[in-house]
Amino acid sequence: MSGTFVIRGGKQLNGEITPQGAKNEALQILCAVLLTDEEVRIKNIPDIHDVNRLIEILGDFGVKVTKNAHRDYTFKADEVNFNYIKSPEFKKDGARLRGSVMLLGPMLARFGEACMPTPGGDKIGRRRLDTHFQGFVELGADFSYDEDNAFYTLKAKELHGKFILLEEASVTGTANIIMAAVLAKGKTRIYNAACEPYLQQLCKMLNRMGANISGIGSNLLTIEGVSHLHGTDHTMLPDMVEIGSWIGLAAMTKSNITIKDVNWNQLGVIPSTFRKLGIELEQQGDDIIIPAQENYRIQKFIDGSILTVSDAPWPGFTPDLLSIVLVVATQAKGTVLIHQKMFESRLFFVDKLIDMGAQIILCDPHRATVVGLNHEFPLRGTTMTSPDIRAGNALLIAALSAEGKSIIHNIEQIDRGYENIDGRLRALGADIQRI
Ligand SMILES: CC(=O)N[C@H]1[C@@H](OP(=O)(O)OP(=O)(O)OC[C@H]2O[C@@H](n3ccc(=O)[nH]c3=O)[C@H](O)[C@@H]2O)O[C@H](CO)[C@@H](O)[C@@H]1O
Ligand SMILES: C=C(OP(=O)(O)O)C(=O)O
Predict the structure, then answer these.
(1) Which residues form the active site (predicted)?
(2) Which of 86, 116, 273, 329 has the most CB atoms around it within 10 Å of its CB?
(3) 315 CA to middle of ligand 1, Å?
(4) Fold of 4-20+238-434
(5) How many beta carbons lie within 10 A of that of residue 144, not counting itself?
(6) Which residue has the least CA distance to atom 31 on ligand 1?
(7) Which fold has domain 23-235?
């Protein structure tokens, strides 16, 4: 059952926060444990709903799961239970999160067969899976889709490497095709591959397991298939979406916050994008320090035109942080156009911000113009429902900056991606209660 947050906003926060391990990396890495019958130990696993559900699915699939410590597990997929993935339970469990779709590649590669219900995840517009299945078919799999039950099945006696040009640089699609190709016969080349740090981490882990992947970090991956993979250890990177969110939180609440151990080199354009909003942030060692700032002014483009912040496949700006940028802009000085190119329904949450007093024009489902209030008029607390994981966190940040009491329902949407978010915000001085 989903709970509610009650927030009394307008308080300045202060202190240090350490980002959790990356959610979207964890989902890929956990699926990869199916590729070997040896032990894989994974550390810094975020303790969040989506990840815990995937660990449960692995357990139900017969993978031996040992919890060594908090956020530290060992997995051994030496025996699997195919009855489970054909059962009604799997149809229900698999459909509860997006990341479960990445079980397909490893299942197909190692067992010659894979099936999956339509995965869950955020309802943020159409989220097609064509890239995944086209990739599997190119590697030699037979694909069928049972429309009545929304159930996908793949079969392949053997997979054979080849040149695959992806229709789009899909993050989970690239992960799936990589995991199928590492055990295929011969050489696979994937062009227009997504190359997020999550995928770089996956490829590095697979290489430690004995795979032969080159081109890591680029959009052309070359994979020489091997006959089997062995065990390894892996540690998750800090979650860059959390890091961006805490930068936004500091600016919105005029707080001095230090974000610890951020792995700066993997943050791409995230720091510079927040700097374009006028937010000061300083790299100190591997921490980010955001000093308390009374105001922040949005930059213009060199020709004097209004700044646009838009999402793009990596190394472009991640779509998962656009809702945070939008919220932060509501209290900046100046104007910015937010252009969400990838998803069709991720900007509708601006209605709630408008109710709170923000000056936003939703131009169409993909674009919103924000005219900042320059902290001259605080947002007003209100009652709202979290529509998706990132908008949920953005609304939470808005509520923490707002005057008065806010209530956020459906916080399950926030909990699926952020570990103990209320506890960690309270440690910074926030007034937030879970009821
Ligand atoms: C579990 C997981 O890892 N989820 C992430 C993953 O989802 P996921 O892997 O599902 O997202 P995809 O990368 O497949 O695509 C996201 C959307 O962008 C569109 N698209 C994609 C590539 C492209 O070049 N052009 C384009 O328009 C797709 O049609 C789709 O609507 O990547 C998304 C894009 O970074 C993130 O928002 C999600 O948090
Ligand atoms: C959209 C997201 O998650 P998912 O792909 O799991 O729905 C996200 O992490 O922002």
Answers:
(1) 122 (proton donor)
(2) 329
(3) 13
(4) UDP-n-acetylglucosamine1-carboxyvinyl-transferase; Chain (3.65.10)
(5) 11
(6) 127
(7) UDP-n-acetylglucosamine1-carboxyvinyl-transferase; Chain (3.65.10)
